[in-house]
Amino acid sequence: MILGVIINLAVGAVLIVFGVLLWKKQKVSLLHDYHYSHVKQEDLPAYTRQMGIGLIIIGTGILLTGLLDLALSALWWIPLAAGIVLGLVVIYLAQKKYNGSVLG
To answer: Of 20, 40, 48, 85, which residue is most buried, by most CB within 10 angstroms?
Structure first.
């Protein structure tokens, strides 16, 4: 149980850090190049912002999963599912809008 909590906290924190770097520092190099190959230069700030927010949402869901698992082990799946679904929707919409396709 405690190992799972530690892994959730670590993975969540890493995704949040990556999301912040994408959003605030526009570190598009954190993504594979096919994810942003068709993004126009003028759209790059909006694209990195939206992709970063998506990663932050997923990371927050995973981080909250670890914290909730410590307190109420029966409800751990709620923030995990919500964070992953919401984050993936945000990332999907960014890919579709700025890259022209979801698969690259």
So the answer is: 48
